Amino acid sequence: MALAAMPALANDADWGVYQQGSALELSMDRNSIWLEKDGLVHFVNQERFSDRQYDKATDIEYYIRRTTGYADCSRQQYVFVGFEYASKHEKQLYNTMFPVPRYAWKWQSAEPGSVAATMLQVVCYLAKTAPHKKPE
Q1: Residue ranges of domains in the chain
Q2: Of 4, 80, 82, 96, which one has the greatest count of Cβ atoms within 10 A?
Q3: Residues contacting residue 95 through CB under 8 Å, at least 6 positions apart
Q4: Does the structural domain 3-127 have CATH classification 2.40.128.710?
């Protein structure tokens, strides 16, 4: 999985905003979209907050949260396998060292009309023209 490359994604990212409000902006890195051999779609989603947020589990204050995940477009499900927190000015504050292993993935369904459903709609649309993952 490409989570090890996650810190570099901010520099090479092509963020496309798909929802914007006064408190939160949601975007997808178009360069992070690729298809796995089994048809799952890899993606990196970004949440940019106007106010500082706090994650109790890591004791980190942040403005940007990026989540790496996979989507199963045929089932309208997604799973997050890693995350990164950053400052308002894109300075990385924390990121997961290793992705959640596949056997421990917990798939989430996207309820119609939810933010997750909108995220999946964007991911699955971009997947139509996404490259296939190159064999390692």
Answers
A1: 3-127
A2: 82
A3: 6, 7, 82, 83, 84, 85
A4: yes
Structure tokens at 19: 């929802």
Token readout for 11 is 């520099």
Convert the pLDDT of each residue in 43-64 to its tens digit: 999 999 999 999 999 999 999 9
